Automatic annotation (TrEMBL):
SUPFAM superfamilies: DNA methylase specificity domain, S-adenosyl-L-methionine-dependent methyltransferases. Its EC number is 2.1.1.72. This is site-specific DNA-methyltransferase (adenine-specific). It comes from the Bacteria. The keyword S-adenosyl-L-methionine applies. It comes from Marinomonas arctica. It holds the Pfam family Eco57I. Residues 56-184 form the Type II methyltransferase M.TaqI-like domain. One of its GO terms (biological process) is methylation. It catalyses: a 2'-deoxyadenosine in DNA + S-adenosyl-L-methionine = an N(6)-methyl-2'-deoxyadenosine in DNA + S-adenosyl-L-homocysteine + H(+). GO terms for molecular function: DNA binding; site-specific DNA-methyltransferase (adenine-specific) activity. Transmembrane segments: none annotated.
Amino acid sequence: MVELNQYYTSESTSFLLASMLDVENVHSCLELSAGKGALIDPIKALNDNIRFTTVDLDGNNTDKLIEKYPDDIHMCSDALDINLNLEANYFDLAVCNPPFTYIDLSDNYKSILGQDFNFIFNKSSKIRAEVLFIIRNLFFLKEGATLAVIVPDFIFSSYSLSKFREVLFSRFTLTKVIDCEYKSFKKTEAKTYVLFIKKIEPVSVDNSVPYFVFSSGNIKKDKILLSSTFIKKNKVDNIGYTIFRGINSSKECRLLGEPFHHNYAHVKDLSNVYYFSNSEKKTNFKYAFRGDILIHRVGRNIGRTVILDSEYVIISDCVIVLRFHNVELKKSFLDYWASKKNEWISNNQKGTCAKNISINSFKNLISSLR
Ligand SMILES: C[S@@+](CC[C@H](N)C(=O)[O-])C[C@H]1O[C@@H](n2cnc3c(N)ncnc32)[C@H](O)[C@@H]1O
């Protein structure tokens, strides 16, 4: 049932998550949005005395959990109901694979956000469910207890949630991160992370956090600076080049009746393209000029790159334009792009369904090439 955002946790991710938990002294574990309970077996395998309390909206899931784990508590309820019948500050551990989705920001959800987080979203009409699940889980945890939560990259690395992460990781301690490869979840393409958050104030936001990269069954250990998870990475300088994307859909471009560059399947990667345009430029369209590097931002051929060899052309919103003013920097970029493009795209494409690459990712790349 993909419609309910029921992207169940894969076995390998569940076992990896469990193996990184300290469950020796855990008696009670909360799992909100428990689904089919993929996280229960791996945790019980480590400590059979742990009693789970699961909550899920879907009665079929709850019924199956009651049948499979009759000694645990299973509630068919809305985990985000402010009146959910659970005790605050009670659980020794919480694990959660929340729905990856936006929901309308109701008054009920504003109460969940509470004083600490409300100001971040006071201009929003929608909110990510994962944000509410994280806050809700922490509310039910004992002081010092850990939440292990699976989140898509939007929650961990988007600019729009930078303030949320800043407040979250200043109030609670991010103790480690697992960076999971694509397809760690059945039926979703999302790149995901497991965040281990302890209900205790961090000693300092200048600390580094263990960062495990899980790929093809292997784990590589690294570390990141806690503060790097909320400093807006788009503050990198963009001296020496201009980058922007088109603003019109291909339909709007087509209606204009003039040539335009779009994420066409037929263009050859790293080739020159030529368009014959001789009409007046329109103010409400974006144009690329001779020498500009045009990159497919979305679609099946994401990352496909061409160089404009004619005077100018309109670009659609599926294309990013890179215009270098610094010749050396352009050369460095093209050298890098010719050899590492595919690897870079697979590490930097975002989005749960439609994959895309962001301008900020390019800014980060170019700043690393200086
Ligand atoms: C992404 S799945 C989680 C799967 C599960 N954690 C696992 O590992 O197998 C999301 C689950 O959340 C449930 N769900 C969605 N919104 C919910 C809510 N507000 N309260 C409780 N459960 C919810 C769905 O029914 C679904 O089973």
